[in-house]
């Protein structure tokens, strides 16, 4: 006769060994090696998910930063085209290459930093104007009484029309200045300085027309 402990009762109350065999679970192995494997696997999965999440967030932040850098604030569902007319030179002093440098830079900045399609007429946005000033002034006098620096100034008049939102229309002047050493001849530094001022002015025009800063 067996009792609840799996041992047979001998006459007189003594317990005899049972024929049933019991196996003990190797707890150390189960809790150590197997449990370690499971925990490590779970940690790897959690780490992978966290890494992917961080990667996605970084990508979104990168897109947002690039959007702010470009600065374009355009509703492309309504505004699809832009018309940029050639800007003629109307200044007293004329350096012919300045017109091409300016017009090319102005069209390039809108081509590179917006999705707007450039058209010859009937654009949703229209930019027109002329180069009205190209002047130089003495700036700073050396000990011998002669000018040591010369300031060069470029001015452009712009007329902007937004056919989708006429409250954005304006006409205003944009200008930029730079300096060069009086010992230099203007003809030797003119292209470099005009290119520099053109970049400054076209950036101003871009910000004023299609960017919210």
Outline:
With about 210 residues, the protein is α/β, with parallel strands linked by helices. It has helices spanning about 25-70, 95-115, 185-210; strands at about 10, 15, 80-85, 115-120, 125-140, 145-160, 170-180.
Which residue ranges are poorly predicted, with pLDDT under 50 across at least 5 consecutive positions? 2-22, 27-31, 60-69
Radius of gyration, CA atoms, in whole angstroms = 39 Å
Strand residue content: 25-35%
What is the CATH class of the largest domain? Alpha Beta
* Most strands sheet: 5 strands, mixed
Number of helices: 3
Order of helices and strands: EEHEHEEEEH
Instruction: Give average pLDDT, whole number.
Output: 79
Overall shape: it is: flat
């Amino acid at each position: 006769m067996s009792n609840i402990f799996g041992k047979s009762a001998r006459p007189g109350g003594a317990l005899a060994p049972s024929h049933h065999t019991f196996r003990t679970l190797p707890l150390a192995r189960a809790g150590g090696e197997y449990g370690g494997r499971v925990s490590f696997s779970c940690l790897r999965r959690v780490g992978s998910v966290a890494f992917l999440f961080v990667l996605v967030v970084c990508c979104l932040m990168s897109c947002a930063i690039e959007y702010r850098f470009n600065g374009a604030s355009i509703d492309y569902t309504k505004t699809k085209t832009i018309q940029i007319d050639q800007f003629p030179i109307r200044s007293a002093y004329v350096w012919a290459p300045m017109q091409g440098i300016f017009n090319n830079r102005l069209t390039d900045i809108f081509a590179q930093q917006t999705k707007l399609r450039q058209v010859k007429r009937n654009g949703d946005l229209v930019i027109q104007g002329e180069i009205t000033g190209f002047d130089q002034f003495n700036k700073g006098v050396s000990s011998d009484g002669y000018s040591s620096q010369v300031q060069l100034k470029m001015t452009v008049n712009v007329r902007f029309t937004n056919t989708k939102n006429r409250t954005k229309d304006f006409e205003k002047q944009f200008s930029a200045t730079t300096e060069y050493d009086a010992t230099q001849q203007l003809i030797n530094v003119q292209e470099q300085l005009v290119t520099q001022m053109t970049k400054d002015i076209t950036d101003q025009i871009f910000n004023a027309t299609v960017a919210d800063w």
